[in-house]
Amino acid sequence: MLKKVFPKDFIWGAATASYQIEGSPLADGAGTSIWHRFSHTSGNILNGDTGDIADDHYNRYKEDISIMKHLGLKAYRFSISWPRIFPYGKGKINEKGLDFYNRLVDVLLDAEIIPFVTLYHWDLPAALQDLGGWMNRDIACWYADYADYMFQRLGDRVKNWITLNEPWVMAFIGHFTGEHAPGMKDIYGAFSVVHNQLRAHSKAVKSFKEENIKNGKIGITLSNSSHDPATDSEEDKRAAQLAHEWTNYPLFLNPIFKGDYPTLLKEKVYEYLPNNYQKDMQDIKEEIDFVGINYYSGDLIKADSNSFLGGKNVERGLPKTEMGWEIYPEGFYKILKGVQDEYNPKEVYVTENGAAFNDKVEEEQVHDESRIEYLKKHFEKAHKAIEDGVKLKGYFVWSLLDNFEWAWGYSKRFGIVYVDYKTQKRIIKDSGKWYSNFIKNNEL
Ligand code: FCB
Known about the structure:
The mean pLDDT is 98. The chain is built from 16 helices and 13 strands. The chain has a single domain (11-441), classed as TIM Barrel, CATH 3.20.20.80. Helix 3 (57-71) runs parallel beside helix 5, helix 8 (167-175) packs antiparallel against helix 9 and helix 14 (329-343) packs parallel to helix 15. With 444 residues, the protein is of the alpha/beta class.
């Protein structure tokens, strides 16, 4: 078989998020986040787990960066915890919180690892939630002020910025199903959260441009799962298209690139959108430098008049990961090709892709063959996407470390590095070793 060689300057990395790995959520003057509150409310997280200790990365970041260096990662995507910087979300600044990220960035640069910073990966300052959080229109200003402050303080060293991580999940799992913080069940609220995240994102992008950061790039990271129609019937095709417009990149990219919500979706959910939302669309339409794609699995969609937006997932018997998510690399290709064809972004990054499996430690080793297989198959599709014109520039495996998997607590392991939560010992899994070797060769 012909070798699949990736472009020479392709950026291979790994990703994490603040609340999932850092621990010490209230250290050094940090404010409470909605995830701290949510995980400390019984019944919300499996086994009553919290992010209080997590991977203790707040204290062990140097060790973790030396692991990254040892693996040969070219870049690292991490997120900043907003309440560490602004304990109340706005106003008073906490320099000690900023110091942590200053040190993190400096040690990364010393190790020649490029930092990719996510400004918001779901840990909103709780003080802002008390003012309505993402449902309050003022959040566009609160967020843009926070973002601008970070551009000023880290922009001399951090060149790659991601405004929001998976705003769909924030809106609908946080405000409609209530499985994530802040745990609300309000469909009108959820659509206002979509809209205000878009407003906040574009406002931050505008101030980023004003800061004029040398070589700076800014984008947004979106959740995706490929939605195939169960049959060729018009009903199933429409249901799959609606699911695509609602849960994938179009919900956010259509406004950002075209200044309007996607067509079918808009018809369907018109009554849920905020009053006079149209007057914001011109402001929301704002050029970005790249699109971040997160992809884990696919779904087969059948029309179903009883379900929200008229579609439900049906079984197709594909193998699944420990999350119960279908392994469907073909869908990854469709999402990558789709985003390029539909919106033609200047650059695309895979900002998350990976899998949870039931890893076991055997004599200080973790033989996670299934994860290696998963990654290989998805790398192959990424390669095909590049060959077919997708401007894919980099790829971040989720995740560097096993970590706090939100409502699932510590029960799901996504890392290429195993974490023993009792001792905080790290063990590079076979997938980590495989990835390291793969990066050296840059080919499959
Ligand atoms: C994504 C999240 C990330 C992680 C993975 C498994 O939705 O962005 O934090 O939990 O799923």
